[in-house]
Amino acid sequence: MARIGIFFGGRDNGRTAKIARKIQEGFGIENADLHNVKSTNVEAISKYDFLVLGTAAWGIGEMHSDWENFIDELTEAPLKEKKIALFGLGDQVEYPESFVDGMGIIFCRLPYKENVVGYTSTRSYKFYYSNAEKEGEFVGLAIDEDTQPELTDKRIKDWIAVLKTQFK
Ligand SMILES: Cc1cc2nc3c(=O)[nH]c(=O)nc-3n(C[C@H](O)[C@H](O)[C@H](O)COP(=O)(O)O)c2cc1C
Q1: Which of 52, 73, 120, 121 is deepest in the core (most CB within 10 A)?
Q2: Residue 160 belongs to a domain with what CATH number?
Q3: What is the span of the domain harbouring residue 45?
Q4: How many CB atoms lie within 10 A of CB 78?
Q5: How many domains does the chain have?
């Protein structure tokens, strides 16, 4: 049974779904299951030791709306023993003051922040503010398919290499 559960929310068949599939492939599809938060329930969480949670940024500085209900249930779920990694999509040119904020909101809502792994450098991005940035790093993987799609595959590959050492 897969030990990693990837839970994502974004536009139907949008970029977040595409990135979630790439992350699944990176771990090997036998090792990771995909769940759209729009059509799963929080009980699915309990099957996994490791969670990867991803959202697009929407509105101005919000999570994708499909996350709104799910996050309330998630924060009540037994997360204490689980390691969690986050990814967020955004557009640093159009939204430089709320870049990948959806990821930051998920982080803020998590009860056991010490369980979050997979922080990444902000160096290759240009933005003014992101609530997903803590002490100079993103709290997870930031993907910008709008303005830096050419960097996506390497960002995912490098991140998964780190997570493989953390998810054990
Ligand atoms: C209405 C709207 C609001 C957005 N707000 C933000 C934002 O606040 N911050 C950000 O970084 N990106 C923002 N974006 C960019 C999206 O997060 C980005 O295009 C993402 O790749 C969309 O993923 P999806 O196709 O899975 O929905 C916004 C896009 C739209 C259309």
Answers
A1: 52
A2: 3.40.50.360
A3: 4-166
A4: 8
A5: 1
